[in-house]
Amino acid sequence: MRVMVGSKRREIGLGGFPDVTLAGARESARAIREKIKSGIDPIAEKAAARNALAATIASALSFEQAAERYIEANESGWKNSKHAAQWTATLKTYAYPSVGKIQVAAINTSHIVSILEPIWSQKTETASRLRGRIEAVLDWAKVRGYRKEENPARWKGHLDHILPARTKVQKVKHHPALPYQEIGAFMSALKAQEGMGARALEFAILCASRSSEVRGATWSELDLKSAVWTIPAGRMKAEKEHRIPLSPAAINLLNALPRMGGTDLVFPNSKNNVLSDMTLTAVIRRMDDASTKAGGTGWREKELKVITAHGFRSTFRDWAGETTAYPREVIEHAIAHQLKDKAEAAYARGTLFEKRARLMADWAKYCADNTITIKLCPER
């Protein structure tokens, strides 16, 4: 078909015989002339349609592909490799079977609810993390141009009207902790234990630190002369550098440790690697077994959970809050907690280091008092 489009002469193919009959060609020519009369360039229109189709095909990304790209783009900024593995595991178990092959642009609220509803009450913590991970993937997809709609996995103002709040279906469970009145006797029994795990647990208790902070501690972080342990921001939960004043007891413990060749770790395992996250808890369980075999009651009964390494932070917090006159902000700084009151936190910019030094020294002295007998540990 030869036709004028504006001031330009165009040649437009109508299709080949026998796929297009003569009558079909005439009908197509008539339709094209109608478009030209309406001010539409049929060749430009066809090119725009091809481009739109190409763009649609290019943006056809499945949820599984989007999740893989998101993890790949962000895993370098995560604290450890386990985080990426956990992301992949939860999505593979709960999300991929339902929406893995669906285009990320097509995922809607009904898809999200069908994934979360079956596990929201029974596995609330897992479901909550899964929802956050799906939300992050879909946000990434929108920013990258793979979807346009609002995020169906968002909680506030959306899923909170469909699913019950976590606090209503899941009770907060604190780490089982030893009553502070019994810490002296426990520390006395702990000192009798051999091994790097026992020393790491003892150091964690004296510093009221998290297990991961202690297990990853290096000699380069320690200034024994100034009695300061400086944990870099990258190893802290709040991603903020934390300086811990070391008590004389903590210094003595460090001075008694062997310096292992080939590693800067303070508490390495037999292969000069970081101790596993269950090592400190395993020490407690061995102490329990030893106590039971010796005719004692042990640290637990069938209805009670074994105390955890993290629980000793609660032991320290209870002791400091109930038996000392140290201000709350001093105690919170000691366990590297962020103040919940933002206005208060804005003014409390110091680290209260000198006061914390006295607090940790008092805690070490209290831990050295083994005159109180050990009783069963109630769950906190």
Which helices and strands occur, and which strands form pairs?
Layout (H helix, E strand, L loop, with lengths): L1 E4 L2 E4 L10 H16 L4 H17 L4 H12 L6 H19 L9 H12 L3 H20 L22 H4 L13 H9 L4 H12 L3 H5 L6 E2 L4 E4 L10 E4 L2 H8 L23 H15 L17 H13 L4 H7 L7 H6 L5 H15 L13
Antiparallel strand pairs: 1-2, 3-4, 4-5
Helix pairs in contact: 3-4, 3-6, 4-5, 4-6, 5-6, 9-11, 9-12, 14-16
Structural account:
This protein is mainly alpha-helical and 380 residues long. The chain folds into 3 domains: 17-58, no CATH class; 63-169, DNA polymerase, domain 1 (Orthogonal Bundle); 180-367, Intergrase catalytic core (hpI Integrase, Chain A), CATH 1.10.443. Helix content is 50%, strand content 5%. The protein contains 16 helices and 5 strands. The protein has helices at residues 22-37, 42-58, 63-74, 81-99, 109-120, 124-143, 166-169, 183-191, 196-207, 211-215, 248-255, 279-293, 311-323, 328-334, 342-347, 353-367; strands at 2-5, 8-11, 222-223, 228-231, 242-245. The strands form 2 sheets. It has a 3-stranded antiparallel beta sheet with strand order 3-4-5. A two-stranded antiparallel sheet has the order 1-2. Strand 3 (222-223) and strand 4 form a beta hairpin. It starts with a strand and ends in a 13-residue tail after the last helix. Residues 294-305, 341-349 and 372-380 have low confidence and may be disordered.
